[in-house]
């Protein structure tokens, strides 16, 4: 009987050399954004999309207000623009989105984070989960454009999941709280008639300023820099159902569960349609398509 010889256990010197190699190697970004297919219609089109409303080239077709400590859903047709607007005071929003025709296809924050960065801004795309993996929408205007501060913080993160009543229950010895973003989004899902709690997923933390501490690498927040008049604007790359919650933490200037009563404001949502209906088509844009991978996975 032959058997595979056992791998030789590395010597202490080999282990030390391997550790030293890791520490000495500069970070290697896993995904090069320039390797993903370019945006259909080109960067010039996407730059222009962020200016259409200001230049009266798009008209308002839908507007709604998300009350404080609550969530709303809205539908957006492919090729329409939508905004989440700071309309009353500094406030963050937890956003979910789904393919309108298939609730199983939703925003996939971890792959979006791997492809782009821990925080999103103009030009970044919100990708959907497997087996679909396509852009659901693209950010065309971010009035905050915070970049990174010296603590490594940025705005609009895809690292936090969402505040939820289960963690709250765990950390408060059983307290019941029904206005966490997860519960707010659950109510909005049920209100939509096509979604339920199981469809709530990890969010885009709109306007939220977060990072990881340099020393202990813990998730931290700072007061959001958002001010009345700021907004984030998206192009719908396919027909979407979108929902957003006004987080009960308000501008997140207090630690979760850290006491104090956060001030919470409503937010406004607007959906716009382009005046020139052929603008996107003429530029070569088309709705995103789900992944064409065969899904054979090496199975015989
Ligand atoms: Zn929240």
H/E element string? HHEEEEEHEEEHHEEEEEH
The best one-word shape is: globular
Which small-molecule ligands are present, each listed once? zinc ion
**Beta strand count:** 13
User: What is the radius of gyration computed over CA atoms, rounded to a whole number of angstroms?
Assistant: 22 Å
Low-pLDDT segments? none
Largest sheet: 7 strands, antiparallel
Strand percentage lies at: 25-35%
Helix content: 10-25%
* Class from helix and strand fractions: alpha+beta
Mean pLDDT: 95
What is the straight-line distance between the termini? 29 Å
The tally of helices reads 6
| Overall structural domain count | 1
Protein name: Meiotic chromosome segregation protein
Domain DUF1989: 65-240
Question: What report would you give on this structure?
Answer:
Pfam families: DUF1989. InterPro entries: DUF1989. Residues 65-240 form the DUF1989 domain. It is a single chain. The strands form two sheets. Strands 2, 4, 5, 8, 9, 10 and 12 form a seven-stranded antiparallel beta sheet that branches. A six-stranded antiparallel beta sheet has the order 1-13-3-11-7-6, sandwiched between helices. The chain has six helices and 13 strands. Strand 4 and strand 5 (102-106) form a beta hairpin. The chain has one domain. It is globular and about 70 Å long. The chain is an alpha+beta fold. Zinc ion binds next to loops.
SSE diagram, text form:
Layout: H1 12-24, H2 42-49, E1 58-66, E2 71-76, E3 81-85, E4 93-99, E5 102-106, H3 109-115, E6 125-127, E7 135-142, E8 154-157, H4 165-171, H5 181-192, E9 204-212, E10 219-222, E11 231-236, E12 240-246, E13 267-274, H6 279-282
Antiparallel strand pairs: 1-13, 2-12, 3-11, 3-13, 4-5, 4-9, 4-12, 6-7, 7-11, 8-9, 9-10
The structure holds zinc ion (ZN).
């Amino acid at each position: 009987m032959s058997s595979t010889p056992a791998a030789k256990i590395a010597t202490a010197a080999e282990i030390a050399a391997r550790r030293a190699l890791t520490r000495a190697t500069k970070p290697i970004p896993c995904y090069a954004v320039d390797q993903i297919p370019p945006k259909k219609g080109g960067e010039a089109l996407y730059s222009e999309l962020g200016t259409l409303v200001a230049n009266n080239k798009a008209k308002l077709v839908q507007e709604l207000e998300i009350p404080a400590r609550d969530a709303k859903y809205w539908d957006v047709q492919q090729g329409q623009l939508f905004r989440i607007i700071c309309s009353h005071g500094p406030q963050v929003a937890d956003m979910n989105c789904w393919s309108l025709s298939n609730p199983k296809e939703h925003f996939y924050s971890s792959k979006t984070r791997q492809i782009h960065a821990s925080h999103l801004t103009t030009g970044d795309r919100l990708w959907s989960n497997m087996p679909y993996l396509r852009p659901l929408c693209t950010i065309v205007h971010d009035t905050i454009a915070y970049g990174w501060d010296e603590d490594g913080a940025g705005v609009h993160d895809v690292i936090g999941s969402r505040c939820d009543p289960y963690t709250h229950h765990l950390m408060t010895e059983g307290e019941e709280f029904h206005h966490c973003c997860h519960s707010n989004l659950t109510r909005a899902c049920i209100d939509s008639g096509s979604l339920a709690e199981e469809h709530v997923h990890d969010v885009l933390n709109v306007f939220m300023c977060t990072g990881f501490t340099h020393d202990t690498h813990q998730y931290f927040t700072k007061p959001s820099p958002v001010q009345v008049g700021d907004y984030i604007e998206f192009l719908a790359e396919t027909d979407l159902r979108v929902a957003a919650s006004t987080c009960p933490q308000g501008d997140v200037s207090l630690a979760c569960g850290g006491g104090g009563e956060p001030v919470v404001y409503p937010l406004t949502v607007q959906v716009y349609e382009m005046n020139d209906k052929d603008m996107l088509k003429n530029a070569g844009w088309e709705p995103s398509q789900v992944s064409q991978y065969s899904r054979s996975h090496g199975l015989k």
